[in-house]
Specification:
heterotetramer, A mainly alpha (449), B alpha+beta (383), C alpha/beta (187), D alpha+beta (231), A: mainly alpha, 2 domains, globular, D: alpha+beta, Alpha-Beta Plaits, three-stranded mixed sheet
């Protein structure tokens, strides 16, 4: 391994270790403040700059909490397995931090290689991501078991069942993106979405994103799937017996996992570092990436402030009877319609090329939008540099807007397939919902005068 | 009808594999047992196979205390029975004591009593629904909205009686003092705004898919068992019995108001019914409040009662429709200024009779929800 | 269905007594359960309140007319007793209350449990057992309910004396309490 | 047929509305900021809480006529023990539900400035940790001597001495009472004046009656004498 590579990796990793834990502190503040406002309270508002009366909307609260956590007594129950009780929070944090390295988050301060650094370039990043996420389950079960507390044990059991179940829809919805891009490399997936070709903007991508987001909520034990730490039933679940700094580590691990899984959602569906003015400055992609992560976390907080919790059997039923069939159906639908659409594009390309070959497009009256259509065809065929079907479709859309007949047919097909896919997905979801959930509906009541 | 036997549960015994039931003592310090209530639960995985309620952690022998002091001195202690609804507790006690001496309550006092009782009902139901959804796992958002509205009502209570929760406002033969100037206007304003809040509350809760699937079909209670087990209040009406003491006894001046009693057809009697009955009852309370605030006359606030309350020997049982159910006071007077026997019929305790039956076979999460839908306050359960 | 009043009960079961002063029917000790079942069948479907009342042994002065036609005051000792009081209502007919009482001595107090008839008596009879020490024959689950299992004595009995307060700790309030106990403040 | 997840979206709309609303509407965000910093002066009673011009505070912060927290003994101004209304009749002590009042009656009567010889409380202690602010003592007092204070900052670092409030700390002037509960104090004073007037009227009437009776008696006696003399 060369010296430069080590330096580059360090340069890319150290920011992860600095940025995300400090973002964690900010997120706890944000969550408390947002939840407070949702509940019509004020939230933390006293602690700001120390020794002054500047409160900065309570932004000093996380720091105060952290100091308190460090100095609190560490209580280990008498019957607990002390070694595993200690290891569990560490083990919960490490995989979460590791996952962050696979995000296609480029920092602009690399010197030796290309000017931009990413912590880890791995051709099988997505696979690796899911593999390491699975480790979290182990830590949680370890915590539940080692605490020697019945509530902890119940929480640990719930966590294992829940995480194993929800990993399947999570992976299956990611498969769609992998199918489309044809690569497991996070960087390539990110690049494939540049120029607003985000996968969330297609019906199957949207469905996959929703499934992915729901499963991600369950993976990170967020409301309404926070059963392993269900306060009203099993007190605090697996971390009932944790206090002080160990508790803080668990907390940190949970939030880092939230960042990581939101980061993956952003990578897979929301165009990674893509966004308006992305070329304006070298740090824009990273900013966009983190902003999108925060957007997703805001939705998580919003959901947490609104929804009650599912029951264990309903949770399982939701994963196996609703999300799993839906995501399998989605994969089929995506494959079919993607290839149908692709065939149609190929067909149109043939038409355009044929038209160009048969006559002289630049003499006489050219058909409207022929230039754009030709451009699309050339891109599709790979004649204008890189071969990129998405970019080709964009040119065909432009052609269709100008009135190119073959492109218009293509766009009509395109729209038709999209609408049909959306309808099919909705009908499927509705049907699955009716099947898996017993008929629960609002009722009518009687009145006595 | 006797207590149903525990389900015949056979342990799964396999060679080299031995499983046992998980015994959990939920409470007395558990976040959602609504105080120091305890349930000894046996779990098969997550399923409840045995549940034993344990009472008494807040027992202070309220009845014995009351038997050792004058009639008036127990009035502030009744506040502490069901500390959410001190006004209705006061009323039930005052009603029973007034039956002993047959005193005339002035018109204005009767109206104010109705207003206070219905405001109390709003407070109780609105917070109950909040706590109930909290037990379902919401992060306290509905509870905070409920507290927000409760706060406004408690402000009114404070202005009238001097205290927010321990009101100690009713006296034998009337009320302690008249409400301050402008109080009725403020109450009118609150009552006018309340339906808007209820709309928002219903929009938040009553169609939510998660709440529907968590509560429907959970904790079913049949009509026959409900009557036989002495279940009262909204819980009884949710099981399909049209029985409201405000209509049946028409105590106070409830016969003057036009209001409806919501109840179900008795098919299910589950947690969702109990939850919705309370939501609907609040609207009826608002209707009563509007009428009472429109009709309230001027006049005296307390009838002619001698300063030393010394009823003739006799016994009486006074009961009212408290927000949680039938709250009764059984008094035996022996001619001295102290009651010879003073008994509280606590609706919270008696509604817990069927807790075990409703919980068996459900999940542990259901047990919490069912307990939440019963609506107990430990001050009243343990007395 | 017979009329819902105490008269029909007294007609059906002549051994039951009507206590005018209390407005209650006193059930005979032998067949309280039978009467309760009859009551349930005849429409008293809801037992609202169950409680005990403890009467100490006391001396009663009575004016009676003797054979010679003169009035004289006689002192008579009334034995102590515990009444178990039930308040019955009818939800179907919306009437009530009918008060029935079971009467038992203070020593070895026993009464018929009416829990098999009305489930609502379950916890309340347990409470009477706990606080008054009345044994209910036929109660499915008779345990202490409010006091802990190891507790001795029955605190609602009128001759109950509190044990030494082992949780006592000095407070400024001790002086005040002591005065109240010493004086047994008379109202 | 409802749309999939419609109830959840409705709920989310409500929470969003509340999130935004809490920044704009006072009726949504009703929390009052209680400044906990010790250097800030605490309000002595709810009634004295300053209400700024045009500030939409909740109603609790305005004068609350019936607020009650802890009893105080009233005197009519001047040297407290000279004009204290309490005559140590001990009714409040007996009626107090949690039994937190401790009174020792004076052995002798004192000559007070209003030339009345009166018993007075030699000791009058109330235990803060036990008092439940029920106001029963105020209601049973026949002399309007004990009323409720609205001061609520009663915590103390001294568990034994500090929680037992002595007579001299309980004594407050009638002016102070007028300040914290103006309406109640006024009615109470009116009642006292009326009672006094009634008492005096009664006394006067009784005196007049006695005088008249004496006159009648004297007249009768005179008549009888005259009769006797006539006979």
């Amino acid at each position: 391994m060369s010296f430069q590579l080590i330096i580059d990796i360090l340069i890319a990793t150290v920011p992860l270790l600095v940025i995300f834990p400090s973002l964690f502190a900010f997120t706890t503040w944000m969550e408390r403040k947002a939840l407070a406002r949702i509940q019509n309270r004020i939230g933390p508002n006293k602690i700001g700059v120390p020794c002054t009366r500047v409160s900065l909307f309570g932004l000093g609260q996380p720091a105060a909490d952290g100091i308190k956590m460090i100095f609190k007594e560490d209580i280990v129950p008498r019957g607990a397995d002390k070694l595993f009780h200690l290891l569990a929070p560490i083990l919960a944090l490490i995989p979460a931090m590791l996952i962050l390295c696979f995000l296609p988050l480029e920092f602009p301060w690399g010197k030796f290689m290309s000017g931009k650094v990413q912590a880890f370039m791995l051709d099988s990043a997505v696979i690796f991501f899911f593999a390491i996420t699975g480790l979290n389950t182990l830590a949680i079960f370890m915590a539940g078991w080692a605490s020697r507390n019945k509530y902890s044990l119940l929480g640990g059991m719930r966590a294992v069942a829940q995480m194993v179940s929800y990993e399947i829809p999570l992976v299956l919805s990611a498969v769609i993106v992998v199918m489309m891009v044809g690569s497991l490399n996070a960087k390539e997936i990110a690049d494939a979405q540049s120029g607003f070709n985000w996968f969330v903007f297609s019906p199957w991508g949207l469905a996959a994103f929703i499934v992915f987001f729901i499963a991600a909520l369950a993976e990170t034990n967020r409301s309404p799937f926070d059963l392993p730490e269900a306060e009203s039933e099993i007190i605090a679940g697996y971390f009932t017996e944790y206090s002080g700094f160990k508790f803080a580590l668990f907390f940190l691990g949970e939030y880092i996992a939230m960042f990581a899984i939101s980061g993956l959602a952003v990578t897979l569906f929301l165009g990674a570092g893509d966004g308006p003015f992305v070329d304006a400055a070298p740090w824009m992609p990273a900013m966009w990436f983190i902003a999108k992560i925060f957007g997703l976390i805001a939705v998580m907080i919003w959901l947490r402030g609104t929804l009650p919790r599912l029951r264990v059997d309903q949770l399982m039923a939701f994963a196996w009877k609703f999300l799993l069939p839906l995501s399998i159906f989605n994969i089929l639908l995506a494959g079919l319609s993607y290839f149908a659409l692709d065939a149609r594009v190929a067909n149109t390309t043939d038409d355009v090329i044929h038209y160009v070959n048969s006559g002289n497009p630049f003499a006489g009256v050219p058909e409207l939008g022929t230039n754009e259509a030709l451009m699309g065809a050339m891109i599709y065929r790979g004649m204008a540099g890189e071969q990129n079907p998405m970019a080709a479709k964009k040119w065909f859309l432009k052609a269709a807007l100008k009135g190119h007949p073959a492109s218009r047919t293509l766009v009509a097909w395109w729209l038709g397939i999209w609408v049909l896919s959306l309808v099919a997905l909705y009908v499927m979801a509705k049907g699955l919902n009716n099947l898996s959930r017993s008929t629960t509906k609002p009722r009518e009541y009687l009145y006595a005068e | 009808m006797s207590t149903t036997a525990a389900p015949n549960y056979e342990l799964l015994q396999q060679e080299g594999l031995e499983t046992s039931l998980l015994e959990i003592s939920m409470g007395p310090h558990h976040p959602s047992t609504h105080g120091v209530f305890r349930m000894d639960v046996k779990l098969d995985g997550e399923t409840v196979v045995e549940l034993k309620p344990v009472f008494g952690y807040l027992h202070r022998n309220h009845e014995k205390l009351a038997e050792n002091m004058s009639y008036l001195s127990s009035m502030p202690f009744t506040d502490r029975l069901d500390y959410f609804n001190s006004m209705t507790n006061n009323w039930a006690y005052a009603l029973a004591a007034e039956q002993l001496v047959e005193v005339e309550v002035p018109e204005r006092a009767e109206y104010l009593r109705v207003i206070m009782a219905e405001l109390t009902r709003l407070v109780n139901h609105v917070t109950l629904v909040g706590f109930f959804v909290n037990d379902l796992g919401a992060l306290g958002t509905p509870l905070m909205y409920a507290f927000r509205e409760r706060e406004k009502i408690l402000d009114l209570f404070e202005q009238a009686s001097g205290a927010r929760m321990m009101c100690n406002y009713f006296r034998f033969g009337g009320l302690r003092n008249d409400v301050p100037e402008g109080w009725l206007d403020r109450t009118r304003e609150l009552v006018d705004r309340f339906p808007a809040f209820l709309d928002e509350y219903e929009q938040l809760l009553s169609e939510n898919e998660i709440i529907l699937s968590r509560t429907q079909g959970v904790g079913n209670l049949s009509r026959e068992l409900a009557i036989n087990a002495g279940i009262t209040g909204p819980m009884l009406r949710a099981s399909g019995v049209n029985y409201d003491l405000r209509k049946v006894d028409a105590y106070g001046i409830y016969d003057r108001f036009k209001f409806r009693v919501p109840y179900t057809d008795g098919d299910t009697g589950d947690c969702y019914d109990r939850f919705m009955i309370r939501m609907l009852e609040m609207r009826e309370s608002v209707a009563i409040l509007k009428q009472a605030l429109a009709d309230i006359p001027e006049g005296d606030i307390i009838g002619k009662v001698s300063k030393v309350f010394k009823p003739k020997p006799g016994e009486t049982y006074g009961r009212i429709e408290g927000p949680k159910g039938e709250l009764g006071f059984y008094l035996i007077a022996d001619g001295t200024p102290k009651p010879y026997r003073y008994r509280v019929r606590p609706p919270s305790l008696i509604n817990l009779t069927v807790l075990r039956e409703m919980c068996l076979g459900g999940k542990i999460a259901d047990a919490v929800v069912i307990l939440g839908s019963i609506d107990i306050v430990l001050g009243e359960v343990d007395r | 269905m017979s009329e819902l009043s105490h008269e029909s009960l007294l007609k059906e079961f002549p051994e039951a007594q009507w206590d005018e002063a209390a407005g209650a029917v006193i059930l005979p000790a032998t067949n309280a359960r039978t009467i309760a079942e009859w009551l349930l069948a005849s429409g008293w479907d809801y037992c609202s309140n169950v409680t005990g009342v403890d009467y100490l042994e006391r001396e009663v002065k009575e004016k009676i007319t003797n054979d010679a036609g003169e009035t004289e005051t006689v002192t008579r000792t009334e034995p102590g007793r515990i009444d178990v009081v039930y308040h019955l209502y009818s939800i179907a007919n919306k009437t009530g209350p009918l008060v029935i009482k079971q009467r038992t001595g203070r020593e070895g107090a026993t009464a018929e449990s009416l829990t098999p008839v009305w489930r609502s008596c379950d916890l309340q009879e347990r409470e009477v057992y706990d606080l008054f020490g009345v044994n209910f024959k036929g109660h499915p689950d008779q345990r202490r309910i409010l006091m802990w299992d190891e507790f001795e004595g029955h605190p609602m009995r009128r001759d109950y004396t509190e044990p030494f307060d082992y949780e006592w700790e000095p407070t400024p309030h001790a002086e005040i309490l002591e005065k109240h106990q010493r004086g047994k403040v008379i109202i | 047929m409802s749309i999939l997840g419609g109830g959840i979206f409705k709920g989310m709309a409500v929470t969003l509305r509340n999130f935004v609303g809490s920044y704009f509407y006072k009726e949504r965000l009703i929390t009052n900021d209680y400044d906990w910093r010790p250097e800030d002066k605490l309000p002595q009673s709810i009634g004295e809480y300053p209400k700024e011009e045009g500030e939409q505070l909740r109603d609790t912060t305005t004068v609350n006529h019936y607020s009650r927290n802890f009893p105080m003994l009233l005197h009519d101004g001047g040297e407290p023990m000279d004009t204290v209304r309490c005559v140590a009749c001990q009714i409040c002590e007996r009626e107090c539900p949690p039994q937190c009042i401790y009174i020792e009656k004076s052995e002798d009567k004192t000559e007070r400035s209003d030339n009345k010889a009166q018993f007075y409380p030699a000791k009058f202690d109330i235990d803060v940790s036990v008092c439940m602010s029920c106001q029963i003592c105020v209601e049973v007092c026949p002399f309007d001597a004990i009323v409720m204070n609205s001061q609520f900052e009663l915590s103390t670092p001294d568990r034994f001495g500090g929680l037992l409030v002595r007579r001299d700390d309980l004594l407050k002037s009638n002016d102070y009472y007028h300040k914290i509960h103006p309406q109640e104090a006024a009615t109470r004073d009116q009642k006292m004046v009326a009672d006094k007037a009634a008492k005096e009227a009664k006394k006067k009437a009784a005196a007049e009656k006695a005088k008249a009776a004496a006159e009648v008696k004297a007249k009768a006696a005179a008549e009888a004498k005259a009769k006797e003399e006539g006979e």
